Amino acid sequence: MKKLIVLVSSIFMLQACDDGDITLESFNFDTVNIQECTDNNLIFKINDDEMLLLNIPASSFVNIETPDGSPRTVTVNSTNQIIYRIYSGNVTDNSVCNLIPPASPIVQEEWTATGGTIEIITDPIYDTDGITILRYTHNIKFVNVNFSGSSNSFSFTEYIFGNHETDL
């Protein structure tokens, strides 16, 4: 009788397990470079079927070196946006930079950042003479950013987006 109870209990427990959708708690764009759309304020990173978009004014990337410990800050809001998307297939820059985006791949999931700040540290890149500035690099970091989507949310205390270079 004990064996029968254990068997029935085991079957019930297996039926009750939920192996449903994986809940997103993070993403990883560490190994991909920042790209930009030349016609708008979008800079982004692509990792196969994922895209991390940053939509802030170009004026946020001032070509003036920031003092140590004093980054420029931009508040995340409806104007200064960070958006994370998962597409139905591998995505390219055409998916966001074209005036009329392609029909495929399509956005399957989207999380929009709410709250937090974007910190930007700007440094000059010098020519080999050590005097002539060639361009500037802007190190971008998200601080205390919360992402909300239709099914769940996740947050970062700090996330290094990467380096965005601008010409003089």
Furnish the topology, listing elements before pairings.
Layout: H1 2-16, E1 35-36, E2 42-47, E3 50-55, E4 72-75, E5 81-87, H2 94-97, E6 107-114, E7 117-126, E8 133-148, E9 153-167
Antiparallel strand pairs: 1-2, 2-3, 3-5, 4-7, 5-6, 6-8, 7-8, 8-9
Indicate the percent of residues in helices: 10-25%
Fraction of residues in β-strands:
35-45%
- Mass-distribution shape: globular
Rg of Cα set: 22 Å
Order of helices and strands: HEEEEEHEEEE
CA-to-CA gap between the ends?
82 Å
Written account of the structure:
This protein has one domain (31-167). 11% of the residues lie in helices and 44% in strands. It has two helices and nine strands; from the N terminus they run αβββββαββββ. Strands 1, 2, 3, 4, 5, 6, 7, 8 and 9 form a nine-stranded antiparallel β-sheet that branches. A hairpin with a 6-residue loop joins β7 (117-126) and β8 (133-148). The chain starts with a helix and ends with a strand. Mean pLDDT is 86; it is low at 3-23.
Name some characteristics of this structure.
globular, 9-stranded antiparallel sheet, 44% strand
Brief rundown of the structure:
The chain has 168 residues and is mainly β. The chain has helices at residues 2-16, 94-97; strands at 35-36, 42-47, 50-55, 72-75, 81-87, 107-114, 117-126, 133-148, 153-167.
